[in-house]
Amino acid sequence: MSVEQPLWQALKAYRVLTVLYAVALFASAHEHFVRPRVAVGYLAVLAVWTLATVRKVSDARSCTRGFLAVDLGIAVTGILLTPLADSAARIHAGGPTLPSIWTAGAVLAYAVKGGWRWAAFASTLVAAANLVERGAPTRDTVHNVILVWVAAIAIGYVVEVARASERTLARALEIEAATRERERLARDIHDGVLQVLAMIRRRAADGATGGGADTAELVRLAGEQESALRALISRGLPGPRDAGPHDGPRGGGREPGREHPDGPVDLRALLARHATGPRIALAEPGTPVELPGPVAGELAAAVGAALDNVRAHAGEDARAWILLEDEPGQVIVTVRDDGPGIPEGRLQAAENEGRLGVAQSIRGRLRDLGGTAELFSVPGQGAEVELRVPKAVPEA
Known about the structure:
The chain is α+β, with helices and mostly antiparallel strands. The protein folds into two domains: 5-169; 258-396, 2-Layer Sandwich (Heat Shock Protein 90). The chain is 60% helix and 10% strand. Helix 7 packs antiparallel against helix 8 (213-235). Residues 235-264 are annotated as: Disordered.
């Protein structure tokens, strides 16, 4: 709902109540009017107009310029007709005009529709009409004119500020949505293409791919593409969310072509896919640990990314342990290894180089799920990644 919508609703109620007030004022003092038929005729037109145009003050789109012009014209006409209907004594004594405080509603409509400049224009016309009706600028007349003028301009200014704030908020939400989409695509690229390219380069360096000019050229191209992709995703990768999830080597990311269902999924089954070798152990509860399918899939993908980091940095012979804990309000998954640990400052340096395994594939996933990812490491004593996800995951 627009931030100005409550103002339109309040204005709608104000117009209906004030036309009833104007009719009541006339009914209580009709015997003092010199031409009561003029007053009755005008108030009948005012009441019909107010009730017939209730929908016109429902929102900014319905409240057109033509409506505003006619509305203000009716208010000014009522002020100028007052000397013809009422007695001069009552007018000089400060008696109300025929539309009374209904006139302020016409001015406020200008303020809500067009801001403080429109409000200044409308209130100036009403002020001039009041001065003509009174014949002389009395203290009460000047006081009322200034009050309406200042209030209308203030409300118009507030409306302009509210609209600017609403546009800024909408832009911020668009930027946040685009940033989340870039991070998601960066995670998919990291868990799929980048991991494959990095694996090709590592195996070539270990002499596992064989010789030959074609192999050397393939390795060179793989290295170039890996560097280019890392630079691209570190700057931000725009584009629609049209790419499906990709699988990383040896369990990183999601399985190719498979989307996790929206219903409950036992997280133990997803984590078991990562503990297929003798060097990765899984400790889990004896009862199912159920999470919504997409949440469980993202959490399992973060665990896969953590294990990929173990293989890449601790070596193929490193051992890893996955601990799954099911607590009343959250699920905790811990991945620990017996590698050499992470040197201080290495994570920030890796992120600057475009290596976003921890920043995006792990922390980014957990942040999107409303959880946290903490990494603990002591040089020479391995590393530990603790992933926490609340069971009541907020919607994105």
